Backbone:
């Protein structure tokens, strides 16, 4: 959308906070209530300073922009704030936050909270391409429907933009497709902003989301401000004028409350976490298609859905989607049916080339017969771009990725069993799952808070290895983990499977120690050292988890190979790929890379020149190598070429077995490169 001109107004404050204070929950309301936005009629810059004491700075910059394009007004509110977001050890990070209001259809608005920086250290943010937190507004004959609320970081800007975009007195209900404690502040702020005549606001959500709401909000506030309605399978909400919102429950272990919503009038599908990506740029839609966002979509899938491929398959089966103006199928058609299909093909081809607005496209597409399928004009996820031009390819890829992971599960599978009180243990579980998946071993993730002992027992029996993770609550492991551990200890076959232990805690971490002691006493074999994380995981801690997951996957592979050799003929013929690789001749090099406080290195023997202009290199890095996650697009690395007669010490150091998180360089002499990487002193170039 071309922007003709804009008006920008800044409001800045600098605040000092007490060390360790939760700035989002404790300081935002009292501070921001004192700051009033300046008039949009003139361009100005003002600065206010509020001193609260302490040594750590807290900054808030509020920017209001008004963009005019094609006769419509789009208002944006941007905030830059410094707060404790995903960091540990008392660190803080300054973040630039922008809120965009995007008109999707005549009666549908998207509020896109945007940050171009990495907001959190969870593994799914590793590409460091920023993120968006999307919510939606639907105007109907019955009133206004809100779709989700954003993370607490965006609560102030969200409420301001919402109030400037619509009349809050017309809000009739709120749809929650996913809820976590991090969204409690935004939900509370919404309740505070609503006029009394709107209260209690009807909230529609799944049963797990309702349980999370009750656990996060005080009972008095919940009963006074919100009226919670639990969605059952095949439920829908009438919006007036024959229009309805259809709900599809799509639970997974990571998001047991997952729910999608389909608007029959606009043919928009609101998918929440499904089809999301952590990326933020100037586009609100998927302009540039697969070339621009394909990597982001796949990386998000690998981190969040690959470990739960079975549940991902079940969720996709509940979404019989077909892109708007898709080409018809001729399967099983005869006579007149073939002619109808030909006409639909011609009509679809013409309309797809017109790039019509969503509302007009939805009206025209209803002429085309779709049966029981959900015709989709665009996919509206909670993170990343709104998917319109790439719907067909993204749907296809989700199916392909899911089937690939299910096939891996058939060959070998590792169970990731955990419970998470505040999301930190879940973040560790995701990183471990990512490391297992990188080694081409299947993963099945099980959240014990949403599972029965029978489900735990079935998974432990089927898996080839397992990890178990727990938070520490009041000096003990939570009851679901106690039950899961009991199931594991009773399983005779589980003792022969490689395993691992992980967990997060605030003080002493007794739960992790108790699990370790009980498994060790029972004779279990650990594939990696127990992972103990105090408070939130750092980038280095997540790297350790990822490497530990890879170590466990490789231990499972060795065990499977040993079993295969025991039962198969002894003579083994190398595959054609292995024979080809054996003939490759290249320089012996050391590839080193660093990102934040995480670094790694590896011997690289497959190095060749890829191009002359511009100069380019091809370096083969296996996906299960620790350095792989540090050399993703945009990463910085150093390639050290080893000279003749100087390779022995380097080879000896880098070929030894490393513990997760252990430095690869040991006693080797190194020099820091300009990009932060390591140069080996004995390298020739």
Residues:
């Amino acid at each position: 959308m071309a922007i003709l001109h804009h008006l920008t107004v800044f409001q800045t404050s600098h605040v000092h906070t007490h060390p360790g204070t939760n700035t989002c929950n404790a300081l935002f309301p009292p501070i921001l209530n004192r700051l009033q936005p300046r008039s949009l009629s003139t361009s100005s810059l003002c600065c206010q300073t509020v001193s609260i004491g302490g040594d750590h700075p807290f900054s808030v910059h509020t920017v209001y922009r008004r963009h005019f394009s094609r006769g419509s007004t789009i208002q944006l509110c941007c905030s830059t704030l410094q707060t404790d977001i995903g960091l540990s050890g008392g660190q803080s990070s300054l973040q630039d936050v922008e809120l965009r209001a995007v008109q999707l259809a005549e009666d549908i608005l998207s509020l896109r909270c945007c940050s171009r920086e990495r907001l959190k250290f969870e593994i799914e943010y590793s590409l460091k391409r920023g993120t968006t937190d999307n919510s939606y507004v639907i105007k109907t004959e019955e009133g206004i429907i809100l779709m989700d609320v954003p993370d607490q970081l965006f609560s102030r800007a969200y409420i301001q933009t919402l109030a400037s975009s619509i009349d809050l007195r017309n809000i009739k209900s709120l749809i929650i497709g996913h809820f976590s404690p991090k969204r409690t502040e935004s939900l509370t702020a919404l309740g505070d902003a609503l006029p009394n005549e709107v209260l209690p606001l009807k909230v529609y959500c799944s049963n797990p989301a309702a349980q999370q709401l009750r656990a996060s909000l005080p009972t008095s506030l919940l009963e006074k401000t919100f009226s919670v309605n639990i969605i059952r399978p095949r439920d829908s909400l009438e919006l007036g004028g024959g229009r309805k919102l259809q709900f599809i429950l799509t639970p997974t272990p990571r998001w047991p409350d997952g729910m999608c919503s389909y608007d029959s009038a606009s043919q928009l599908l609101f998918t929440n976490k499904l089809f999301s990506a952590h990326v933020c740029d100037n586009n609100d839609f998927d302009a540039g298609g697969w070339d621009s966002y394909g990597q982001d979509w796949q990386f998000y899938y690998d981190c969040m859905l690959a470990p739960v491929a079975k549940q991902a398959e079940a969720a996709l089966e509940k979404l019989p989607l077909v892109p708007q103006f898709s080409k018809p199928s001729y399967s099983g058609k005869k006579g007149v049916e073939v002619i109808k299909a030909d006409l639909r093909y011609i009509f679809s081809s013409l309309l797809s080339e017109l790039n019509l607005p969503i509302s007009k496209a939805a009206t025209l597409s209803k002429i085309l017969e779709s049966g029981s399928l959900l015709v989709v004009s665009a996919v509206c996820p909670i993170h990343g771009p709104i998917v319109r031009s790439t719907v067909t390819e993204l749907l296809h890829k989700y199916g392909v990725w899911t089937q690939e992971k299910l096939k891996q599960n058939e060959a070998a599978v590792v169970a990731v069993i955990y419970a998470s009180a505040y999301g930190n243990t879940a973040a560790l579980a995701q990183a471990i799952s990512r490391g297992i998946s990188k080694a081409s071993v299947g993963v099945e993730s099980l959240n014990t808070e949403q599972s029965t002992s029978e489900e735990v027992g079935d998974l432990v029996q089927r898996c080839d290895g397992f990890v178990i993770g727990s938070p520490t609550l009041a000096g003990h492991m939570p009851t679901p983990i106690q039950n899961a551990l009991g199931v594991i200890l009773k399983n005779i076959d589980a003792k022969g499977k490689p395993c691992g232990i992980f967990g997060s805690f605030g003080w002493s971490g007794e739960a992790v120690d108790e699990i370790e002691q009980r498994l060790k006493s029972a004779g279990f074999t650990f594939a990696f050292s127990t992972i103990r994380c105090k408070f939130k995981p750092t980038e280095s801690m997540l790297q350790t988890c990822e490497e530990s997951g890879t170590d466990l996957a490789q231990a499972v592979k060795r065990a499977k190979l040993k079993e295969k050799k025991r039962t198969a003929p002894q003579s083994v013929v190398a595959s054609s790929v292995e024979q080809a690789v054996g003939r490759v001749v290249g320089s012996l090099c050391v590839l080193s890379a660093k990102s934040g406080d995480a670094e790694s290195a590896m011997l690289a023997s497959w190095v060749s020149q890829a191009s002359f202009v511009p100069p380019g290199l091809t370096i083969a890095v296996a996906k299960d190598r620790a350095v792989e996650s540090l050399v993703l697009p945009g990463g910085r690395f150093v390639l050290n070429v080893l000279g003749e007669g100087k390779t022995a010490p380097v080879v000896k150091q880098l070929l030894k077995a490393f513990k997760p998180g252990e430095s690869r360089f040991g006693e080797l002499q190194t020099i820091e490169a300009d990009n932060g990487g390591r140069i080996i002193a004995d390298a020739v170039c």
